[in-house]
């Protein structure tokens, strides 16, 4: 059993939406492999140090097969809001050659070359959304006006699904990602609706293929089975808009919380790339973390994780580790290199990280050019977190310009 102090309740509470929980620093120093209790009553081992988190995420002994043991299954069902216990997780291979083959087929649509080609269209859409915000007048909600609709448009275009259905996607993804808001019956019903919708869309793509990712997977020499296509479409829709929409909001909130950060970008727009990476590292409101299950004892320098343990990797706590990052508690927009763990590492690192980076850089570039006087319309301490969301987020980002 990993060393532990008193068992803490998890997820932790942030003092404000942009500040990290105080437990991160304490646990990294005193109890880097700690036992925490989830709202379901189940216990898991929480990792908060950079080296430990990186090791687990890259170690094939720690799997995404969270139903591999009875304890893990309870955690997956009760703790995830559905995302770790959905048809997506059970249909797409989660490990081994099957997962790698699925990943290779899908990742062809997320290459750097494709992202470069997408960027002009993303910037054009950002400009149109900012036009609408300006027309409505200040103050406005940057998340509702820009942060949410932009990634929805991008991922809908990529998958060939109508943007007009974005409100339905928002509800379906919230049921999959929210830890506390919905009961199991509502989660099950939403998943069933989402699955039916995507199955109908896959059938339509089969009947009339287009220039989109799902059509490509349907028309290959060895087409992907329909069930896997449905799960792939669902997974990409959820991951492709919810996480990026929330990260756009958090990034802008962080940059505007200290006016010197925004001014430094106005003075030197070339810092956009490193500023995006630092926002990803500095994110204090990342959500649940990444769960893994281990079926054999694993030795660390300072602890043993026993077989049958579910481990929660806090990438955000690891990204504040002073042993990995100089002045880790400061937001340095020039930081380079910046080997943060926001997208994970290894075989299960975020498939869409190139797309997310492209969207974040495009949004920031356009905002700096169009709205140089942008500022928060509330004190940073008054920004509200979205409670219970597995990926973390701000409810609104009130701004004026």
Automatic annotation (TrEMBL):
The record's similarity note reads:
Belongs to the cytochrome P450 family.
Q: Which UniProt keywords apply?
A: Heme, Iron, Metal-binding, Monooxygenase, Oxidoreductase
UniProt GO molecular function: heme binding; iron ion binding; monooxygenase activity; oxidoreductase activity, acting on paired donors, with incorporation or reduction of molecular oxygen
Cite the InterPro entries for this sequence.
Answer: Cyt_P450, Cyt_P450_B, Cyt_P450_CS, Cyt_P450_sf
Q: What is the lineage of its organism?
A: Bacteria, Bacillati, Actinomycetota, Actinomycetes, Pseudonocardiales
Q: Which organism is it from?
A: Saccharomonospora piscinae
Q: Which Gene3D superfamilies match?
A: Cytochrome P450
Q: Which Pfam families match?
A: p450
Question: What's the protein called, per UniProt?
Answer: Cytochrome
